[in-house]
UniProtKB/TrEMBL annotation:
Keywords on record: Membrane, Transmembrane, Transmembrane helix
Claim: Hydrolase is one of the keywords in the record: no
MF terms (GO), sorted A to Z: catalytic activity; molybdenum ion binding; pyridoxal phosphate binding
Regions that span the bilayer: 15-35
Region spans: Disordered: 51-80
Name of the protein in question: Molybdenum cofactor sulfurase C-terminal
Pfam families: MOSC (PF03473), MOSC_N (PF03476)
Domain MOSC intervals: 270-418
Length: 438
């Protein structure tokens, strides 16, 4: 008897779906005509969108076999360009979320401008703790997409008194609409998104900088590794749908929200020591916002292609975007950068402070947000545990500290090695703890 009930139940459900389909198809011309009148959300007034146009990328050919081969330094390619050059530039304004590809970028004391200036943090027994793709359950951060809109005086609606201009720009944050748990709900959502009656993504905006003299942005300590810099709490901007997307039932209106968005304070950056050059050498002490450890992360295409070949059995096309580097270069042979101590880009001297110690964060696919069980972490650890300072973890890429506080980078600029030497990674230290001999 129960099986007949199940069959009849399925028939009833199918009849409902069929009736809904017929009704919607009959009304479809009217729906489409109405939906086309609705405009997409307007861009922030007086601003322009930062980054390459949608659909364009300097990494469109990242899987070309030619990037697996090294070329001599100071040589030219078939187009007369330097063989060793910047292939692509990326910033990640909202830590662990999608990146923004640039054609050029200003470099400021904390790294590429706007990079890792925002972070999500969870409120726990010890206060606010940053949350990234490393943390269990947070792989969905990969599908959160920030857009940066910065003031553009040439814009016809530019007005210095606009709130968008007063805050030096706006960040728009979008994320997938949580899917309905019922078949009817999923069906209706699919029809709604096709006809543009329902958006496939939610979105909200936040100021790039807190307005001056505003009392709505409290400064709170946010733990990142062993540091606790003060940062601006943007909790009031988070819509309930974002809480739901991140797996929380709480509303931003609650006095103690379990999740919040923080913006780094320019007056409370984290000074960097460990492998970084000192103030006596540079004239300033390197610092950063919410980057893990150093201002800039560099990665070579040939090195990445070597790693990708080791885990092709599990991930046929392992994108370099999984490793979230700021500067992606082409030209050197695989892992040549392991011994770099100083390089020059755009005529600016840059210290290669140390190798990048890898965790399991790259196991998360930036396109799907799905975490692979073992790769590429397994492949990396099979042959890239090379730094005597940390033989537990693998290395890929280099951490950079510029010798000047401000300059510019551009795709296509030549990369020149000035000095090579020996690297030994220094692990994160507790406050007041010292390394012998350093």
């Amino acid at each position: 008897m129960s099986s007949w009930h199940n069959i009849l139940g399925d028939l009833d459900l199918d009849l409902v779906l069929i009736s809904w389909t017929i009704s919607i198809l009959c009304c479809l011309p009217i729906i489409i005509s109405w939906s086309r009148r609705k405009t997409h959300p307007l861009r922030p007034k007086g601003c322009r969108r930062l980054g390459l146009p949608p659909g364009q990328s300097n990494l469109h050919d990242e899987f070309n076999p030619k990037y697996s081969r090294g070329t001599p330094q100071n040589s030219k390619d078939e187009n007369g360009l330097p063989s060793w050059r910047i292939k692509a530039l990326f910033i990640y304004p909202l830590k662990s979320c999608a990146g923004i590809e640039l054609q050029n970028s200003d470099v400021v004391p904390t790294g590429l401008k706007f990079d890792r200036q925002f972070v999500f943090a969870e409120n726990g027994a010890e206060g606010w703790n940053t949350r990234t793709l490393r943390n269990a359950g947070y792989q969905r951060l990969a599908l959160i997409q920030p857009e940066l809109w910065i003031p553009d005086p040439s814009s016809p609606d530019y007005d210095p008194n606009l709130p968008e201009i007063q805050s030096q720009g706006v960040m728009i944050i979008s994320y997938p609409r949580p899917q309905s748990v019922t078949r009817i709900g999923q069906f209706l959502e699919k029809i709604g998104t096709v006809t543009h009656l329902i958006k496939s993504r939610h979105a909200f905006s936040v100021p790039l900088f807190p307005p001056k003299n505003s009392e709505n942005y409290s400064l709170l300590p946010v733990k990142i590794w062993k540091d606790k810099p003060l940062a601006f709490n943007y909790a009031s901007f988070l819509p309930p749908s974002l809480h739901k997307y991140l797996g929380f039932n709480a509303s931003p209106s609650q006095s103690q929200s379990p999740i919040s968005l923080f913006r780094a304070s320019p007056q409370h950056t984290r000074q960097i020591f460990r492998n970084a050059p000192r103030q006596e050498t540079l004239g300033f002490q390197p610092n950063t916002a919410f980057a893990d450890a150093y201002p800039i992360h560099l990665l070579s295409l040939s090195s990445h292609r070597d790693v990708a070949s080791k885990c092709a059995y599990a991930i046929p096309n392992l994108s370099i975007l999984r490793f979230r580097a700021n500067i992606i270069i082409q030209g050197p042979e695989a892992f040549a950068e392991d011994a770099w101590k100083r390089i020059s880009i755009s005529g600016v001297e840059i210290h290669a402070a140390c190798r990048t110690i890898r965790c399991k964060l790259p196991n998360v696919d930036p396109v799907t947000g799905i975490r692979h069980k073992v790769e590429p972490d397994k492949a990396l650890k099979s042959y890239r545990r090379i730094d005597e300072g940390d033989l537990t973890n693998a290395c890929l890429g280099m951490q950079l500290v510029p010798a000047v506080e401000e300059f510019g980078l551009r795709v296509g600029e030549e990369v020149v090695v000035l000095e090579t030497g020996v690297h030994r990674y220094i692990k994160m230290l507790a406050p007041g703890e010292k390394v012998e001999g350093v």
